[in-house]
Structure formats: C-alpha cells, structure tokens
Amino acid sequence: MTPSVLDAITRQIAAEFGASFSYLSMAAWCEHHKFMGAGQWLRAQSQEEHGHAMKLFNFVLARNHPVQLPGIDQPRGEFASIVDVFERALAQEQEVSRNIDALYELAFREKVFAAMAELQWFITEQVEEEKTVSEIVAKLHMVKDDPASILDVDRELGGRRDEGDEEADRGAKHAR
Ligand SMILES: [Fe+2]
Ligand SMILES: [Fe+2]
Fold it and tell me: In this structure, which ligand is nearest to the CA of 119?
C-alpha cells in the first residue's frame, strides 16, 4: 500500500469510529427523551459503524502495515428534535459517502488494487445506508408534529433487525 492510501484509510478508520460514537450519542439523546425505538435503532447503527472501522482496521493489518489509531472528536450531544437527529445522521452518511469516493479515487490513481477491492464493499454499503436514513427522514417529515404518528415511527424503528438476524434466517432456510 502507498503511504498516502494508508494515511487516507487510517483517517477513514477514525471517521467510522467517529460515526459510531456519533450514533451512540444520538441514541443517548433519543432514549433520554423516551424515543426508545429510535434509540435502539441508533445503538444498532453505532455497532455497524464500529464494524466498518474494524473491517478497515483488519484490512490494514492483513496488508502488513501498523495501525496508528487517531483520536475521536467529541460528538454532538444536543438535538432540537428527533427529526434533527435523523437529518444530521443523513448528512453524516452523505459526508462519509463523499469520503469513501475520494478514497477510492486515490486508491485508483495510486493503483492500490487490494484497497480498491476492499473499498467496493463500502461504496455499496453507503448506497444502502443513505437510502435507509433518507427514508426515515422522509417519514418523519411526513408525520410532522403529530405525536401519535411520531410514536408509530419510533415503534417501527425499534423493530430494526440486525444483519446478523437476517443471516441467521438465511442459514435457517438453508438448513431446512
Ligand atoms: Fe460506516
Ligand atoms: Fe454509516
């Protein structure tokens, strides 16, 4: 791996841990304000981001480079509303997508093919993440300030199933 690609991946590891921390902070705000479903959704999202960071962490080590972990910025802890939480989550995902694209372009320019292959997964993942969060934002805009409808959305968010569950389902289907 070239030094600049390694450096950029290291920054991405920090960004993924930062996203994990930021989602955890959003989860805390939601649960403190008794949006327990959203809190559960955001906790699961925080775990996913942790998984993204670890995927890159493992990749750097697999390529025989040392990992220099950077500091993580303190995430925002105050939000105006549950809509504000998810609008910020969407902005965060859009920024991550731009970073991943730039990182992919760098790996391409420097012909680091292994990094390009690794980053493909992240490009696909970002499409999914942006789609999911923008659907939640759209729903929250639709219901506006109607408390009963907001609680419905919150309940729905609490029904989030993790990728692990889906894999377990697929496994169960294959076993049948
Ligand atoms: Fe991520
Ligand atoms: Fe994400």
Answer: 1
